[in-house]
Design the sequence.
């Protein structure tokens, strides 16, 4: 089922937007999405890297109406990043309405703590989605995860978002919508991209000061005006500089390695 808000002829391709899910209320690393790497914020790096993906039609920000996010929205305006503001915790609603506002047939969900997002990997997955959108309801690379944590990709067709929006009632799963999909494989046809080499427990996301220090080392060494580095470049660099990988190794999430969900999710479920 295509997005009825965006009718497509046979000559038009499916409209896919990259949706940066971010807010200012980070508990572990305060205001992390606006912290600087070199001279740019995390959000700006993610925005710039996603714009290199040829299969992406637009990059947008999906954040909440909570006042503390005003500064994030102002920053988005300053860098030319369009946005939608919705519920703080009801991510089903926020993402569904983001897709609706920008007339997307599918969104690529990228969280705001992943500044090493790989545009080539994005293109590979979106191209697969375009060729197989009738066969699957959810496209990901974390079920199970075999890429470094921080290169997570989830492609959600509008029809899947609408199904979640109308059908999911539990507030827990309206926040952890990907967990709902993965825990209900009989309701959703799931495609998972597996990396030939299992790269967990590599941790390339930013949740703690050590993560930020690690990512800053990567950018300082690999970021250049004439080339945007990708996963292979980072892997080659870390192979030559193994000490850098130790910067944040104590923050490795063993729950993610063993499954598909975060420690935060499991801590909530156990209550």
Sequence:
């Amino acid at each position: 089922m295509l997005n009825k808000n965006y009718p497509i002829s046979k000559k038009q391709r499916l409209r896919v937007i990259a949706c940066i899910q971010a807010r200012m209320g980070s508990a572990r690393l305060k205001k992390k999405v606006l912290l600087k790497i070199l001279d740019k914020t995390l959000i700006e790096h993610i925005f710039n890297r996603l714009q290199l993906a040829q299969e992406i039609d637009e990059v947008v920000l999906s954040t909440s109406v909570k006042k503390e996010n005003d500064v994030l929205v102002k920053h988005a305006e300053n860098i030319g990043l369009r946005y939608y503001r919705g519920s703080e915790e009801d991510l089903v609603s926020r993402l569904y309405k983001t897709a609706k506002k920008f007339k997307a047939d599918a969104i690529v969900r990228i969280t705001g703590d992943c500044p090493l997002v790989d545009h080539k990997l994005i293109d590979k997955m979106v191209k697969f989605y375009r060729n197989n959108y009738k066969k699957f309801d959810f496209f990901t690379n974390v079920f199970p995860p075999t890429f470094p944590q921080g290169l997570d990709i989830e492609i959600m067709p509008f029809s899947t978002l609408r199904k979640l929006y109308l059908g999911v009632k539990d507030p827990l799963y309206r926040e952890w919508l990907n967990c709902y999909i993965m825990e209900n494989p009989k309701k959703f046809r799931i495609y998972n991209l597996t990396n030939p080499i299992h790269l967990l427990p590599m941790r390339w996301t930013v949740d703690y000061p050590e993560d930020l220090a690690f990512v800053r080392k990567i950018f300082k060494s690999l970021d250049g005006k004439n080339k945007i580095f990708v996963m292979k470049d980072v892997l080659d660099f870390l192979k030559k500089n193994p000490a850098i990988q130790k910067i944040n190794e104590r923050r490795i999430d063993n729950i993610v390695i063993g499954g598909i969900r975060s420690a935060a999710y499991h801590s909530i479920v156990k209550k």
About this structure: Residues 1-10 have pLDDT under 50 and may be disordered. Residues 43 and 203 are 18 Å apart (CA to CA).
